[in-house]
Amino acid sequence: MVELHNWLVELREGLSDKAYALGWAAVKALPGSLSECLFNQAADVIARCKDFTQLRRNLARVIGVDGPEEVPDGLVRDSIRSYARYWREAFCLPTMNIEERFSELDISVTGKEHITHALEKGHGVILALPHSGNWDMAGVWLVQTVGTFTTVAERLKPESLYQRFVDYRESLGFDVVPLTGGAVAPMQRLREALSHNGVVCLLGERDLRARGVEVVFFGEKTRMPAGPAKLAIDTGAVLCPVHCWYTSRGWGIRIEEPLDTSRGVEFTTQKLANVFEKNIAQHPADWHLLQPLWLKDLSAGHLSHIEEGVKRLEREKDD
């Protein structure tokens, strides 16, 4: 039975890799207007055929309604369309004319001066953002503006799929560090980048390693990664929240003012969560979070994993 389960997992992972490979090949071969139409139609069908209960729970908190059943169907449809647009653009990005797109991107960015001022201080800058809009497109703008930056990637399964995404992002000029399984711990690589006055970008609202800190987010408790705040405090780097969203034919990217990190990791992470909350509320459809995030929604197994992570951190502090 165990062998059958393992075989099914391997089959599913292999099919996932082949599906992404097919997506990359197909979208690159289609005219942009046709791929946009097809992705929107597919998103609309999926939004009608699935209930997306967890997405509705997440959006209910964002828009301030009592429950998932009160989330408008139109917002769910727009959310799935936004998510589909991210993937359509991801499949197209490797073949885009970046130089032509740069002027369009550059116009859409506000708060550029915060990066300039941070780098003038000489300790690097950390840009922390949620999974909203097209963060890869923001990365393209950043590479064209200041050069290569360092980021961390979740280790997807199978390995071939993870490597496909690493190759894709590195082709855009990103320096990608694996969250797990790398030759060097990710925090060490990030510190090295900042020690050379580099730029680090971190997606910061999902605590993937159960090593985060508790925050209040849209009125409820969850946990967010401590990494952005801890890195800024340990290295003296400037920490700026960033938000990405979609406009009808383009992108919006806002770099916020630096956060005050003088009051510790927990306080700084809560301040970061507050900025995320404000920005997500302005563009709820573009927040691509279909998974459980709040503690109230997590399974018993996930909560147990978090509890173990908290105990592990406490032991590390004692040592």
TrEMBL record:
<keyword id="KW-0472">Membrane</keyword>
<dbReference type="GO" id="GO:0016746">
    <property type="term" value="F:acyltransferase activity"/>
</dbReference>
<keyword id="KW-0808">Transferase</keyword>
<dbReference type="GO" id="GO:0009247">
    <property type="term" value="P:glycolipid biosynthetic process"/>
</dbReference>
<protein>
    <submittedName>
        <fullName>Phosphatidylinositol mannoside acyltransferase</fullName>
    </submittedName>
</protein>
<dbReference type="Pfam" id="PF03279">
    <property type="entry name" value="Lip_A_acyltrans"/>
</dbReference>
<dbReference type="InterPro" id="IPR004960">
    <property type="entry name" value="LipA_acyltrans"/>
</dbReference>
<dbReference type="GO" id="GO:0005886">
    <property type="term" value="C:plasma membrane"/>
</dbReference>
<keyword id="KW-1003">Cell membrane</keyword>
<keyword id="KW-0997">Cell inner membrane</keyword>
<keyword id="KW-0012">Acyltransferase</keyword>
